[in-house]
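The instructor's notes for this session suggest beginning with a concrete chain rather than abstract definitions. Hand out the sequence below and ask the class to guess, before any prediction is shown, which regions might be ordered.
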Amino acid sequence: MLLRFITLTALDAGFDSGMEKCKEILLKNGQVFLSKASKARNKIARMACAWIPSGSNILVHSKSRVVLEILREASVKNGTFHVYVCQSAPDNSGMSMMEELTNFGIKCTLILDSAVGAVMEKVDFVLLGAEAVVESGGIINKIGTSTIGLCAKMLNKPVYVAVESFKFVRFYPLNNRDIPDEYKYKYSTISTVKDLEKEHPLIDYTQPSFLTLLFTDIGIFTPSAVSDELVKLYL
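After discussion, reveal the predicted structure:
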């Protein structure tokens, strides 16, 4: 979405306006974009917290600011619930997620990533963030997300995704092989390692059939509705 603002700057300014005018409009559009982005998480939290009833058992993965905000809001408005937090290797971001949830007074259990299958039968639903939402309605997120989606699908557990609309992207992967290496690995890894097959990818692609609903700042969508929203956003 930020690229959309950038590429339209010349049109807003007029082709004969010069570089300084383009820079001025670019800065203005960027400020508008950042203002909307900062409000998105609060809007999603107000919308999604109604879907988290008291007494729920929830599985989360990695650390997501929008998921944190939803759970904080729900703990204030809806009462107590229990959150199972995946450790989220290789950076163990789940530990940071658990610390913040504990600071909010939310009951948590940190679990190994490999324990997802065993814990899934205990949870009522899965709540995930996302790095990006692609045209198919699937998501790109921290490595391990696809495995969680698969386990949830097999046990008929709903999978909810909380994500800001500026993370909707015009990209249509069919599987994890379609994700470019520059997204899956750090730059330092790509530039120094010859055989990336031996490296641990940082993200994966979760197909839309594993997901139930997406909570966004522009509404609640099924995965199949994402392509229609992308058309509206980019036209």
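Then share the key points. The radius of gyration is 19 Å. The chain has nine helices and ten strands.
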